[in-house]
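Q: Could you write out the predicted structure for this multi-component system? I'm mainly interested in how the pieces pack against one another.
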Amino acid sequence: MHTDAQISHNPSSSARAQASTPARFSAERSTGAALALPATVWLIACVALPLAMMLVYSLFGSVRNELGGFTLEHIGGVIGSTVFQQLFLRTLLITVAVTAISLVLALPIAYHLSLRSRRAPLLLTLLLLPYLIGIIPRLLALRLILGAEGLLGSLVSAVGLSSEIVRPLLFTKAGTIIGLTYVQLPVMIILAYLAIERLDRRLLDAAADLGASSAYAFATVVVPNARAGLAAGAVLVGATTYGAYVEPALLGGASGQLAGNVIAQRFVVFFDWGRGSALAIASLFVIAVFGLAIVGIARLLGRSRVDSAR
Amino acid sequence: MSTPRADRFDRFSAALTVVVFAALLLPLVVVVVMSFNASNSVSWPPSGFSLQWYAEALDKARVREAALNTLRLGLTTALASTALGTITGFALVRYSFRGRNLTAALVVLPVLVPALLLGLGLVIVLTGLLHLRLSLLTLWVGHVTFTLPFTTLIVASRAVSLDRRLEDASRDLGAGWLRTMVQVVLPPLLPAVRAAFLFSFIISMNEVVLALFLAGTDQTLPGYMFGEFLRVVTPEIDAISTLMVVLAVAVLAIENVAARALLSRREQS
């Protein structure tokens, strides 16, 4: 149960402390608990309690955001409504698309950065630049680049095509997908880089000596060995995407609105905490299932290959 | 460490890296270029050079107030989140105690729960349970919560390499717990503490989802820009965001100078 605690300790000195002075060891335990207490209390109050209150409101929410008797009206109204079913399905499909596109683009880039590039530190610093400039101006620039009156439109008309053909890229589902992928891709690249960078280089040398092409080594050595970190990245990107609000609000138009936009509307416009909370809880449920599915896929991937790390 | 000859896949991944990095960074260039646009529409290409959007942005009382709010929020968020994250990150790595797994699980939770749902849940707790009015204070609560995983993990990743024997030596030589913490444990952690401070400041400064739902009428710059984006888009947004980058770089520089001054003073004493 305490295995991970012991791994992160300096094992020899930890053992010494236990063996020589048990009294001091128990004093250390209470010191650790005391130091961790403020953050634990803060996170219970500001993360666990808000989520618990959403569950409470989805089951007991009444008019004017008061709590009333137990009701299945909100949960039933979410599960039974074809409008909400379609909304959740659309959000899930877009989440899968954004996660898959990010992963497919990030994998070769992370491979290049961690194993084949000498300029990785500089390039990773460049990846942090978008965080310095914030999400809204970046989405505005994207709108400027992709728009019919923008950079892409003028390029398209310069080669003699109608600039109208780029119009479906904005204020549609495509706009939502492009905006979300653009925002999530740096995260995915950094996490994939961290996962791949740990690889024992000798495995790649061995694969090359045995005649494997880089592509074959990438598929059979690099990706399977990094699967835990890659799965963590995919879960993180997927969870963030499913709960996205800003990208669909600014680039998605009417057809590209996601679950987050509808949940926010319930809370802020309709002041309907009951139905809004039910939608939020249902979203968290979908996110959890999505995360478990990713972890399951990563496990299957590990089972079908020879685990070359051991 | 032999580097095998680059084959087709290696060249493909190198080319993909160049293309994707260019695509990721192009919008940043566009933002800065557009902020000097002379025309009042955000269409490409910009027409002429002008500083009018900077003047216009700084002329608005709402923008100046939002800028002040953003700065106050960023600094107080970074202070609280870094203090909390430092002791938590250190405790998680250094000690084993009852409830350690609970704390470790809670720390990653704000990353896995989308910011929108975290924010709306906080609206219920802060206004429904505690009857607070939404303001910069309630947004501060949200931002400390949102940045705590990052500050904790940054400090924890550094605390892993602390040498415990130095602490034991300090205690054996008669230093108390607090003195050991301040003089032996904290100095090697300082680079991580500084990184945590800057990282949480920059996250808070640019954060928009919590800012939209938890700030009430106290607007921050990202909240103001979101409204402008939906209402009428002018290069003013580009001018404001360019100014925000300048502000972020200034904070990085000031922090750097201050840290150097403090460190050299400590070495002298």
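A: Regarding packing and overall arrangement: Residues 89 and 243 of chain B are 33 Å apart (CA to CA).
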